[in-house]
Amino acid sequence: MSTLDPVAVFRMEAAECLEAIEAGLLDLTHQLDDKDLVDAVFRGLHTLKGSGAMFGFEALAAFTHHCETAFDRVRKGEVGATSELVAAVLAAQDHMRALVDQPDADHGDTGHKLLAQLQAAVGAKAAAPATATAAVAAPVQEASAKKAKNGWRIRFRLPANSMANGTNPLGLLDELRDLGECTVRADTSAIPPLDELTPTELYISWDVTLMSEQDRSAIDDVFIFVLDDMELSVEEIDGAAAAMAALVEAKPAPAAAASVSSPPVPVVPVQEFRPVEAVPVKREAPAAIQAKAAENVRVPAERLDELMDRVGELVIAQSRLSQLASASTDIALRSVSEEIERLSGELRDTMMVLRMVPVATLFSRFRRLVHDLARETGKAIELVMEGESTEVDKTVIERLADPLVHLVRNSIDHGLEVPADRLAAGKAKAGTITLSARQAGGEVIISIKDDGRGINRERVRAKAESSGLIHPGQPLSDPELLQLIFAPGFSTAAAITNLSGRGVGMDVVKKTVEELRGAIDIVSMPGQGSEVSLRIPLTLAIIDGLLVRVGSGRYVIPLAAVEECLELSLEEDLRSRGRSFISLRDSLVPFLRLRDLFRTGTKPDVHQKVVVISTGTERVGLVVDQIIGDHQTVIKSMSKLHNDVATFSGATILGDGSVALILDIGHLVAAGQQQEAQLRAAG
Amino acid sequence: MSANILTVDDSASIRLTTKVTLTNAGYSVTEAVNGAEGLAAAKSNSFDLIVTDLNMPVMDGLTMIEELRKLPAQAGVPIIFLTTESDADLKARAKAAGATGWLTKPFDPENLVKIVKKVLGR
């Protein structure tokens, strides 16, 4: 797909336009008398109609025309904006989206139904759909199609301000000359004395004899832009009369009039009126400061991905180069290598920023969803959004859209109570759904919180037991119990409602998040609501890592998660044996011995190191043999065979061509915390 | 002779079509996305022709035309407005504001070039 295809650009633009219209309409539901919003919605509809017609989306243009007309009436104050009108246009807006996506599909009666709703909302007589087509059709040619026998005699005087307004009489004369042989005579009798002359005004009128069999309409076409304001007389003449007329008419003002025969050159007085010469205004020199424009370039996502791949390969090649350079004594090579290292680092950072988009683009679509669900369920819902400016990789955003829709639906369908129940429980009538995003280390945490009834543990347990997921009475910790809802085919809804059960289950949500190398946490308090948090890595492609050695293997720890590195002295190692805690500035931090975890079967180094990593609040130390250093890492995903290897989130290629595994921080921290809990329980 | 043309439209697709059409016809094109930007561009550069939409956010085309015509340097610069309205009233208002001519959307690229040639006097 070429980016220079206007239809493709139109589709993108239409999508933006529809989003803006939707946002405007949703805001309008809260402030029906906001004139700016009405204007904004009108403009959106207007652009959509105009551009739609331009690019062959006739049905869209015709349909949108009705909505535009309705809003035009609101804009002009003929009718007030009502919630019915807003709702009708909101519904119509979905239809427009369909018309953009599938302009040729049969949309049946949807359009008619929506228009009927719209008409009912504005209280207007139902307009026949045919009027829409008329509205976007080209203006009707009114001029008569009568043909001249031999020619025309044309006398015209343009409005005095027409030159200032950009009409060039010479151009008009040239157009007449294009129609046939012309004799042009300028009547300069109306030119005032010099001191009364306004240089931008036009004082001359013309008398033209045109020998041509052209239609009268061809002449009107020449004057089309000034036709309403000018004096124009057009008479049909035959050849002999024409020649006579030119002579006779020349007599009354012989001094002022100049007669030029065809092909004529512009007469002298006229030339003086060329605006640029007659008005010696000093134009500002083309300023160095260009108009400040938001210069955005649209790039298809796959091109960015390609670029990303190249940058990834560059990073690997660069890391080989540094390795070679560091082993070399050639100063020039080493300085070039350092230069390239710096450049590739900067290139990588720039690349990262290119792919980042604010979560707002993801969150904004939930306003509509919540609005619709509130209507559907009869629940009063307040949507709160936080941290919308947090930026996440574009691919991540796209992949998260569906899971988030599911989670929001769940919160509204299962979580929030109906108003009566909420009042009975002493809560506010309207439930609150909070969508929030924040950055923590190398991750973004996106959470969906509701203040509803919370997850019913007994129901979850009963359902899990009845479907054989757990043994009856099997002891489970609260987090384990809550994790059950992510099992395939699990649903606690007594009846599958219209909202839930749309083919996307929590298992799909979990899978999507894990594919993004993220994790899901659930917190739920009975009677107070639930919060589902998705922890997603900031980016999918390249990370800064800390390269470490455990035994003979090398591993990468994402640098964003690293808090500090400590030395684990031999005595502390011995002292802590069996306890696996180190004291870190008055707090105990559990640690994992990676050598044991990976079963390297090697002897520990004398000077072992502890890398303390965290996921925001929880910390855990990882004991490694050696810290090799900072390393830019291109993440390569592992094969499907390694799907259940939770300890690693991916692999990377090192400078020497060998492979290092990337540690999954979330999993390791959880393992460390679990170990801590067990030790504490054991006393 | 290549003329410098300023196009002002909030619709990216219309801007693109206009630009492609006019560039292919041998003109150089500068773009602005609303009346305020168009006005600023016209103040800092000289254009031989301005093609503008009427309904735009920030500053609409009518206001831009009025403001342009207040500038002595803009006297005589032709302004063509693009309109979807068959509304005679709007046309009259744009003309009163100082527009030179109009083109009804949807337009054919050939039509645009024809009109541009017409107002530029070839």
Automatic annotation (TrEMBL), chain A:
The modification Phosphohistidine is found at H46. Residues 542-674 form the CheW-like domain. Keywords: ATP-binding, Chemotaxis, Kinase, Nucleotide-binding, Phosphoprotein, Transferase, Two-component regulatory system. It catalyses: ATP + protein L-histidine = ADP + protein N-phospho-L-histidine. One of its GO terms (molecular function) is ATP binding. It comes from the Bacteria. Its EC number is 2.7.13.3. GO terms for cellular component: cytoplasm. It holds the Pfam family HATPase_c. One of its GO terms (biological process) is chemotaxis. Residues 1-103 form the HPt domain. Involved in the transmission of sensory signals from the chemoreceptors to the flagellar motors. CheA is autophosphorylated; it can transfer its phosphate group to either CheB or CheY. The lineage of its organism: Bacteria, Pseudomonadati, Pseudomonadota, Alphaproteobacteria, Hyphomicrobiales. This is Chemotaxis protein CheA. Residues 292-540 form the Histidine kinase domain.
Automatic annotation (TrEMBL), chain B:
One of its GO terms (biological process) is phosphorelay signal transduction system. InterPro entries: Bact_response_regulator, CheY-like_superfamily, Sig_transdc_resp-reg_receiver. Pfam families: Response_reg. It comes from the Bacteria. The modification 4-aspartylphosphate is found at D53. Residues 4-120 form the Response regulatory domain. Transmembrane segments: none annotated. Keywords: Phosphoprotein. This is Response regulator. It comes from Rhizobium esperanzae.
